[in-house]
Design brief:
The chain contains 13 helices and 5 strands. By secondary structure, it is mainly alpha-helical. It has a single domain, classed as Ribonucleotide Reductase, subunit A. Helix 6 packs antiparallel against helix 7. It is globular and about 65 Å long. The structure holds fe (ii) ion (FE2) (2 copies). The site of one fe (ii) ion has 5 residues, from helix 4.
Length: 475
């Protein structure tokens, strides 16, 4: 493809056609991106037409335009939410000063690290989900997977745009590194732990899009408050797409539960072995998958007490999600109560300076958001007359980062002896046998209008089309 033709294929609202320097940087990066996509993007289906939405502008009509696209031809665009006139920094020591339109020299490396850490999760999740298309439970689900994948690709573009446009040579080097790391690779892994966990079945995919993409939502919300205006505007626009990823997880888990309840009613039993024998995923297995992905995602928020979090807040680089909802945007005086191990096998509440607790503030907002779906799923279960309740485990359970890292704790938050913890884990997390069972259900269903037996069809299709539409054209 010639330079001119691929540049005009990048929809953008950043004045790309007038910016020669940015064009040159992207000209080098774009072919590397495409070869990464071919190598590490969705396996199979690259030559098939997929019913995808593409952002072609930031207004209401343009941000989701639907059509049939082959994934390698997807128009990965660069969009920033509209600029607010006279935008000021909304929090921290510099509150009220004009927002930065260029990177302040003293914050350059911190901002670069924030952007690279966020940017790294985008290609990572595409890599994690690479093989799922081969076992999709329907064409509807296959299409949703690919929609998530191309949008994570676009989020990578969005972050690479910032690196290229504002960070010069080291930005370009970071952009290359973003295509060089590999999820789960021993020598050159992705930056954050959860993004190196394999996602080899669709139940994990739905848990990931519910819990881990939701971490993404809260990170993006925090960065959408940044005093560095191009970053804030980039993240604000990404949030519009992120909502669909969480929808895929939320409704995916809901549909698995609906199907399981139907099967339980059909066989007149809630015995997990009987439910499995009838081809559905028993609710205790679902709970174990939930425990795994929720606890893993909690670590992504960082340590509950963090001088680093205090610094990025103080300097106006990263705010709280929905900063406007808080009264005190300075947060210099405030205190925040967090739970710490009391050294005697229990928990004690302790007030810490608010700025140091920003990770925990964000994590708690995240947990409250996670609860919403769990409540909805439990309503389905109750309505079916089944005596079972899904629960988010305690935030102290199975943590690897922060004050509760490696403190043996049961899912209900009870501190326990290490031996009891080790002995309990196989019942709390998916066992080898659970994973093998779930894997055994992963048989591809590619017939138009059909759905696999372990998951109910959705209530609605995409963009007002029916659930059984041919969302991916295989012939
Ligand atoms: Fe993303
Ligand atoms: Fe996402």
């Amino acid at each position: 493809m010639s330079e001119a033709s691929y540049l005009e294929r990048i929809p953008n609202n950043v004045g790309l056609s007038e910016n020669r320097q940015l064009q040159r940087a992207l000209e080098h990066w774009q072919p590397a991106f495409l070869s990464w996509w071919q190598e590490m993007g969705p396996a199979g289906f690259q030559a098939k037409d997929v019913y995808l939405r593409t952002a072609v502008s930031v207004d209401a009509q343009g941000w989701a335009s639907y059509g049939w696209v082959k994934m390698p031809d997807y128009r990965w665009g660069i969009f920033l939410a509209d600029r607010e006139p006279e935008k000021t920094i909304g929090f921290g020591d510099l509150k009220g000063q004009p927002a930065w339109q260029q990177v302040p020299a003293e914050h350059r490396s911190t901002l670069r690290r924030l952007i690279v850490t966020q940017g790294d999760t985008e290609p990572a999740s595409v890599e994690q989900q690479r093989l799922l298309g081969l076992t999709a439970p329907s064409l509807y689900d296959l299409r949703n997977l690919f929609q998530v994948n191309v949008e994570e690709g676009r989020h990578l573009w969005a972050m690479v745009y910032l690196l290229h446009a504002y960070f010069g040579r080291d930005g370009r080097e970071e952009a290359e590194e973003l295509l060089a790391r590999r999820s789960g690779d021993r020598d050159n892994p992705r930056i954050l732990g959860t993004f190196n966990e394999p996602i080899s079945d669709w139940l994990s995919f739905f848990m990931f899009t519910y819990f881990t993409d939701r971490d993404g939502k809260f990170q993006l919300k925090s960065l959408a408050e940044s005093g560095f205006d191009p970053l804030a505007r980039t993240c604000r626009f990404m949030l519009t797409e992120e909502a669909h990823h969480m929808f895929v997880g939320d409704t995916g888990i809901g549909r698995v539960i609906r199907r399981t309840l139907e099967v339980m009613a059909g066989i007149g039993s809630d015995d997990p072995a009987a439910v499995r024998a009838a081809g559905a995923i028993d609710l205790p297995t679902l709970q174990r998958y939930l425990n795994f992905w929720f606890s893993s995602s909690l670590d992504l928020f960082g340590s509950d007490q963090s001088s680093n979090a205090a610094t990025v807040f103080a300097s106006g680089l990263k705010g709280r999600p929905d900063e406007a909802r808080y009264e005190d945007h300075d947060a210099r005086e405030g205190a925040f109560e967090i739970e710490l191990p009391d050294g005697k096998g229990g928990a004690a509440r302790q007030a810490v300076p608010l700025r140091n607790a920003m990770n925990e503030v964000t994590r708690q907002a995240y947990v409250a958001d996670c609860e919403i779906g769990v409540k909805r799923w439990n309503r389905l279960i109750r309505k079916a007359g089944v005596d079972f309740e899904l629960r988010l485990p305690s935030t102290r359970f199975r943590r690897q980062i922060g004050s509760w890292a490696n403190v043996p704790t049961a899912p209900d938050g009870t501190p326990i002896a290490r031996e009891a913890f080790e002995a309990g884990l196989p019942g709390w997390l998916p066992s080898e046998a659970d994973r093998a069972f779930v894997q055994s259900l992963m048989q591809p269903v590619t017939e138009v209008g059909r759905f696999a037996g372990w998951i109910a069809p959705p209530e609605r299709g995409i963009n007002n089309l029916p659930p059984g539409h041919d969302y991916v054209r295989l012939s």
